[in-house]
Structure formats: C-alpha cells, structure tokens
Amino acid sequence: MADYHVPVLLEQSVEGLAINPNGIYVDCTYGGGGHSAHILSQLKNGKLIAFDQDSEAIANKIDDKNLIMVQGNFRFLRNYLKYHAYEKVDGILADLGVSSHHFDDETRGFSFRFSADLDMRMNQSASLSAKSLLNDYTVDQLKFIFKQYGELHNAWKIANLINDYRTHQPINTVDQFKELLAPVLPERFQAKILAKIFQALRIEVNQEMEALKEMLLQTKEVLKPGGRLSVITYHSLEDRLVKNFIKNGMFEGQPEKDLYGNVEVPFKMINRKIIIPSDEEITRNSRARSAKLRIAERL
After folding, report:
1. Rg, C-alpha atoms of the chain
2. Quick one: how many helices (H) and strands (E) in the chain?
3. Domain 10-100+208-298 is classified in which CATH homologous superfamily?
4. Which residues lie below 8 Å from residue 13, measured CB to CB, with a gap of 6+?
5. Would you list the domain boundaries of the chain?
6. What is the pLDDT of residues 183-200, one digit of tens each?
7. Is 41's pLDDT higher than 50?
8. What is the C-alpha separation between 105 and 247, in angstroms, rounded?
9. Rounded to the nearest 5°, which phi and psi values hold at 239?
10. Is the pLDDT of residue 102 over 70?
11. What is the C-alpha to C-alpha distance for residues 203 and 209, in angstroms, rounded to an integer?
12. What value, to the nearest 5°, has the Cα angle with vertex 73 and ends 21 and 296?
C-alpha cells in the first residue's frame, strides 16, 4: 500500500475531521488507502465510505469491516451515499492529488518522464483519453484548456503546434507530443512547462474541475451540522475553488446580504491560515511540496 501512494498531510487532514469513533465518514479519494487507514484506526462502530474510480485502487482495498468501498467518481457523492442508506455524514476528506502510482506507472501516460501512450484516464472505462482529446478537439478548445487549466500564456501557440502536427499524423504517444512541443520547450524551463501542459490535459480528460465543484456543492447537503470538510489541493485552480466555496458557499462572486447586512454561509473556516507540509514531510515526499489543506465545519 505504501508503494502505491504516500499520503500527504496525513495527521493534519484526519485530525481536522475531529473523528467520532461511531460516526460516518467519507474519503473521496481512496488512492493507496493511507488516509482511509488512518480514519479507520479511529473508528469503533462508525463507517467509512471510500471512493475511487480506478480499478487498481479498488484492488488495493483495506480489509476492514467498517469500510465500504465505492468504485465511482466522487461527483456522485450523494447518490452513492443514498444507495448505501446514508443521508448524512460526520466528515468528508478529499486529497485531490494524483496518486504517486499513476505518475510512476509508465503505461498510464500521466508523466512526461516515460515513453507511453497518451492516456491519463483515472477511470479506464472512460471514452476520452489524452490522445483522443489531442486529435479531436478544435484549436479553440485546445487553446482554452491550456490557458485555463495550465495557466500557459502561449496556449495559442501550443494549440497551433498540435493542429499542424496532427494534419500529417495522429498524436498517440508521449514522445510524439514532446517532439511537436519542442519549439515551446526551452531547455531551462522544459520540465516546468511540460508539467503545466500535462496538468491541463489530465484535468480535462478526467473533468476534474467539474467533478470538484459538483462534490463540494453536495457537501452542503450531506454533511451534518458540525460535520467537517477536509480538502487537500495541489494547484491554484483547485485551491481557489475550495477557498471561495468554504468562505462564501459559492465559487465566484460574493454572497447576497440580507436587509441587515448579514451574510448566510454554509461553513465556517477551522484553519484561518492554510496548512502546508513541513520541510521534513517535503524531504520525505517531494510531491507534497505544493499541497494546501483547508478545513471547514458545516454550520
């Protein structure tokens, strides 16, 4: 299990849930089971419902009578809870990072370090892969993805390079993709730019922003008053959504005030200051370096 994924901010994120040994909890992102195992260790008669859409993560299931495993996307949180006869829960944890296993598995196409097919699907039965996206999306769609999800200033140039290449042959592999991107990859910044490009593709392939928004909106309904929400983000797009949602109950704009100037919001922030990994944790696990933890309580 430890080889699959090293859990980030383990103690802080689970402590933030203020575990009731007889409570009902959700781990939206089971992965290697690190956070789930820590929650389960504190349960007596409580239950943990753990989500993962990747069959490889499901195969890594912990043997524990208090664990209910769901192979599905956390965007369907409410439906799956109802299916298992739970209306309300005491806490929800979501570690939004990609498992180390996915980055290190050269067959899955998540990393630009390996020669592989451009796949990037968390759910292997999903129809949209990175290569189908690169070959089928319009130039404008590609430009939007790289600008919005990669925050790349030269998104238009990347989109045009893709379009020029695919008129001669389909783009199927990481090596082909890196070859066509050569004009926008100065050696000094190559890894940084590729990381942003691959992030943008992964977000679009897995519809990560839409899934996150849908899940967060459902937490207002399924969390009991006093229930906790503990979310670990890894890039500014995710963190902005989570921050605005916790602060205002919405993703953009400001909530409306009543006649007396009061604002009704669904959550209160537990940590006013973002929780980040210690230098020691980053030394042990370099992939923790960009993690940010926000904890909120349902009012």
Report:
1. 20
2. 13, 7
3. Vaccinia Virus protein VP39 (3.40.50.150)
4. 35, 93, 95, 230, 232, 293, 295
5. 10-100+208-298, 127-205
6. 999 999 999 999 999 999
7. yes
8. 37
9. -65, -35
10. no
11. 7
12. 45
Task: Report the greatest alpha carbon distance in the chain.
Answer: 64
CATH of 127-205, one of 1.10.3720.10, 1.50.40.10, 3.40.50.1820, 1.10.150.170: 1.10.150.170
Q: Does the pTM exceed 0.85?
A: yes
Question: How far is CA 175 from each of CA 111, 117, 189, rounded to the nearest angstrom?
Answer: 11, 9, 18
Per-residue confidence band for 153, with pLDDT thresholds at 50, 70 and 90: very high
The residue whose two tokens read 């899940």 is 215
- Encoded tokens for 256: 């409306």
pLDDT, tens digit, for every residue of 199-236? 999 999 999 999 999 999 999 999 999 999 999 999 99
First vs last Cα of the chain: how many Å apart?
36
> CA distances (Å), 56 to each of 33, 61, 101, in order?
12, 9, 10
Phi, psi of 294 (to 5 degrees): -125, 135
Best CA proximity match to 7, nearest among 81, 62, 44, 55: 62
Provide the pLDDT confidence category of residue 98 given band limits of 50, 70 and 90. Answer: confident
CA distances for 180 relative to 3, 36, 141, 169, angstroms: 33, 41, 18, 11
Q: How far from the centroid of its chain's Cα atoms is residue 178's Cα?
A: 25
The pLDDT, as a whole number, for residue 1 is 43
Q: Give the up-direction half-sphere exposure of residue 244: CA atoms within 13 A in the CB hemisphere.
A: 15
